[in-house]
Amino acid sequence: MNPTYMAIEFKRQARDVSNVMFVLLLPAAMYLLFGASTAGGEQMAGHANLKYYVMASMAAYGAVSAVTAISATAATEQTQGWGRQIGLTPMRPWQFVLTKTVVALAFAAVAMVIVYAVGIFTGAKADATWIWWATAAISLGCSAVFALYGLAAGLLFKSDSAAGVASGSVTFFAFFGNVFIPLSGTMLDIARFTPMYGMIGLVRWPVLEGFMADGTREELWWYIANVVAWTVIFLALALWGVRRSRARR
């Protein structure tokens, strides 16, 4: 990993207005809109109040958005002129990928810190300190799965719009993954098979232990199976994108 290139990449991403607005600030704004300012936010839901429930959900969404957007951009750069420029330097391809991954996770962590900080100052509460650390760690860890998704999108679409398409679809995944509003009935049945359902269920597990808004309870193994299944799918798509990219060179 090249520290100089990492610093340059981090500064470049930080100067991108869309990253700052939509990746770092939008999740916090959504928490303020749907969590902090909602009537009844002090009511308890499991081991935390409703404000905390919304805060943890928005932090997870922010982490996924950051990782997806940056990994999609990295894949597009690798298949276009910038990738050839990097190829002329001593930097190895794995160093390029590792640097991009670290930068993406750093942005995800920053997005989460912003949301959690806003949550602290607006009354988000949990029964124990370990719940804060657990939800944050699960969000950051599971967001790495979507680095594969962003990488696959960038490799398969190979255009400047790939990052936008990947980021936009993350919002779609969040709606149908039970992230923004509690789903029920047929919509919930469909949500169980969408990419963010397992991740958000794991993030909420320290608070709700699987209980849903409609009173039903989801088993832990289903969340884990969802995450594992989509990891395999995104990994397969990313590998297909890499092979197709190399075949055209």
In short:
With 249 residues, the chain is an all-alpha fold. The chain is 77% helix and 2% strand.
Describe this structure in words.
It is a single chain. The chain is mainly α and 249 residues long. It has one domain (3-247). Helix content is 77%, strand content 2%. It has helices spanning 3-15, 17-36, 50-79, 81-87, 93-121, 129-143, 145-157, 162-175, 185-191, 195-208, 220-248, and strands at 44-45, 48-49. The longest helix has 30 residues, at 50-79. The chain is globular. It is a multi-pass membrane protein. It comes from Neomicrococcus aestuarii. Residues 8-186 form the ABC-2 type transporter transmembrane domain. The chain crosses the membrane at residues 20-40, 52-74, 94-118, 130-157, 163-183, 220-242.
Keywords:
249 residues; two-stranded antiparallel ribbon; mainly alpha; 11 helices
The biggest beta sheet is recorded as: 2 strands, antiparallel
Count of folded domains: 1
The shape, in one word, is globular
For the largest sheet, list the strands in their spatial order.
Answer: 1-2
Query: How many strands appear in the DSSP assignment?
Result: 2
What's the pLDDT, averaged over the residues?
A: 84
Structural class: mainly alpha
**Segments where pLDDT lies below 50 for 5+ residues?**
none
Count of helical regions: 11
Proportion of beta-strand residues: under 5%
Distance between the termini: 25 Å
- Proportion in helices: over 70%
What order do the SSEs take from the amino end to the carboxyl end, as H and E?
HHEEHHHHHHHHH
Oligomeric state, counting identical vs distinct chains: single chain
* Rg of Cα set: 18 Å
